[in-house]
Specification:
The chain is α+β, with helices and mostly antiparallel strands. The chain has helices spanning 4-16, 21-33, 85-97, 165-168, 172-183, and strands spanning 45-54, 60-66, 72-73, 75-78, 102-104, 116-122, 131-142, 154-161.
């Protein structure tokens, strides 16, 4: 399974966020240890992709009330073998929001760089054992004039004004996405 692109994204991430170099190296070590890391069949965990989606004016972020986890989170999911992780993040944003048009927000010059990395446990459910999601997160902005369509993976979708985010969720990784987007000047 091709992991070159993932490794390049991780290298760029470590350059852009030097304080998080160790985290990027953990991701790279996980990918090196698991040739099937881009597939959900990788039992200890797998690479996932998600997006911090800004409204057209940048004043709000789109969150989903995740059906299985029962929490307000960013949109994202499994990469299902897609070696260009950003394509999986875009696909998940489109599928989970019903909106077809997004742009990647440039914040690190002309190179695509993930906004955040996060490893989080997914509890056992049915036949699926507990495992980790190694989430690579990108910054997207929705094009104007697109209606939201709630997918079967969500209970609800909501544009949350940036100033109200902390009142809706205390998820550390979600709040970190907001802080990083602000830090890179996304509006």
């Amino acid at each position: 399974m091709h992991r070159r692109h993932l490794n390049e994204l991780l290298r760029r991430y470590a350059e852009a966020w030097p304080a998080e170099r160790a985290l990027a190296e953990r991701f790279a070590a996980f990918a090196a240890a698991h040739a099937d890391c881009l597939l959900r069949s990788c039992v200890p965990g797998h690479i996932t992709a998600s997006a911090w989606i800004l409204s057209p004016d940048g004043g709000s972020a789109l969150l989903t009330h995740h059906r299985k986890l029962g929490r307000w989170l960013q949109l994202g999911g499994h990469v299902d073998g897609e070696p260009e992780i950003e394509r999986a993040a875009l696909r998940e944003a489109q599928e989970e929001s019903g909106m077809p048009q997004f742009t990647f927000v440039p914040w690190a010059g002309d190179r695509l760089v993930p906004l955040d990395l996060d490893v989080h446990p997914i509890p056992a459910r049915g036949q699926e054992p507990r495992h980790d999601h190694w989430d690579v997160r990108f910054l997207l902005q929705a094009a104007p004039g697109q209606p939201l369509v709630v997918s079967s993976e969500s209970r609800a979708l909501r544009w949350v004004p940036q100033v109200e985010l902390a009142a809706l969720t205390d998820e550390v990784s979600v709040l970190r996405l907001q802080q990083k987007a602000i830090a890179v000047g996304a509006r």
